[in-house]
Amino acid sequence: MDKLDSNMRWTSQRQVISEELKKVKSHPTVNEIYEMVRKKLPRIGLGTVYQNLDILAKLGIISKLEVDGEQKRFDGDMTPHYHIRCIKCKRVDDIFIKMDRELEKSAASCCDYKILDHHVQFSGICNKCLPKA
Amino acid sequence: MDKLDSNMRWTSQRQVISEELKKVKSHPTVNEIYEMVRKKLPRIGLGTVYQNLDILAKLGIISKLEVDGEQKRFDGDMTPHYHIRCIKCKRVDDIFIKMDRELEKSAASCCDYKILDHHVQFSGICNKCLPKA
DNA sequence: CTCAGTGCAAACGATTTGCAGGGCC
DNA sequence: GGCCCTGCAAATCGTTTGCACTGAG
Questions:
Q1: For A1-133, where are the alpha helices, taking DSSP H only?
Q2: Are B41 and B56 in contact (CB under 8 A)?
Q3: From the CA of A14, how many Å to the C1' of C4?
Q4: Measured distance between the N- and C-terminal CA atoms of chain A, rounded to whole angstroms
Q5: What is the pLDDT of residues B63-115, one digit of tens each?
Q6: Nucleotides in chain C with any atom closer than 7 Å to protein CB
Q7: Which of B106, B114, B122 lies at the smallest CB-CB distance from A107?
């Protein structure tokens, strides 16, 4: 899975996975994506979904979320933004505040890393879970 | 594992796990902690390490890191701080820049969550990996 | 026709769980 | 003596891999 060369084929599986992910505003897990895609391609394998999500992410077409949790989640929205996670129901939503690149500068001045990126993950309780909290 | 009540016992296993974790400035995975602790308590079970790390984290004595990656990592340093992760060797280091609570305020104004916390995770290449990069 | 991509099933690795025995309170 | 906690092993769950077949180019 290291060669993203020009021999790469744009298969219907790849197409449908990308399409379906960009259609929703949620941040589905691999299994949720599998279920979505299965409605269009009933014989697709779970392994294929995993592999294609990985390739699509490496191509920069979708993004693999850097939020913690047991399962990986994906996002079809490539606009730079942060995320928030409900500690009750585990859903993930977008936070569209401007990316603060100053953070990277201050971080750079206090460690020996070449800093490439950063991500802010908020946690809280979503409005659906609040009444029960 | 939901009752952190007063009947709780402070066992030697719990003591050693806490001690060993606070002794290092790295951010070890459960297996690394298991190996560290095994030098003191050779008969300890991996399950016990998992369970106690969980309890210690819930007690606020150590913290479970919210960084992504295949394995969970723990931190014995409870001073609020951020983290950076090397994309090559996967090591995690501390970033001691001041926690920016303003971020939570801006996030609160654009979503329907009761925001409880936030964490910034930087990613980059550490000085050990830079020469090879 | 070729070879990247697919479907399927088995393998894997991290974590969790079930349970009988052990030892603090 | 009760029961929380332990050690151990089996179970679970997300993800990866191996492989023969398929279909895009």
A1: 12-23, 30-38, 46-58, 102-108
A2: no
A3: 13
A4: 44
A5: 999 887 889 999 999 999 999 999 888 999 999 998 888 999 999 999 999 99
A6: 3-10, 13-18, 24-25
A7: B122
Q: What pTM was estimated for this model as a whole? A: 0.90
Question: What residues does B76 pair with on adjacent strands?
Answer: none
Closest Cα of chain B to A50: distance in Å? 15
Question: Does A96 reach chain B within 8 Å, measured CB to CB?
Answer: yes
Among residues B122, B106, B68, which one has the least CA distance to residue A96?
A: B106
Distance from CA of B128 to the nearest CA of A (A): 9
Structural tokens at position B92:
């995690």
> What pLDDT, on the 0 to 100 scale, is given for residue B62?
97
Two structure tokens written together for B57 = 């984290």
Does B58 reach chain A within 8 Å, measured CB to CB? no
Rounded Cα gap, residues B97 and B84, in angstroms: 12
Which among A113, A118, A120 has the least Cβ separation from residue B118? A120
Q: Taking 80 as the threshold, does the pLDDT of residue A130 lie above it?
A: yes
- Contacts made by residues B38-44, CB under 8 angstroms, sequence distance 24+: B40/B16, B41/B12, B41/B13, B41/B16, B44/B13, B44/B16
Q: Which domains does chain B have, with CATH numbers?
A: 1-77 (1.10.10.10), 79-133 (3.30.1490.190)
pLDDT tens figures, A70-122 = 899 999 999 999 999 998 899 999 999 988 889 999 999 999 999 999 999 99
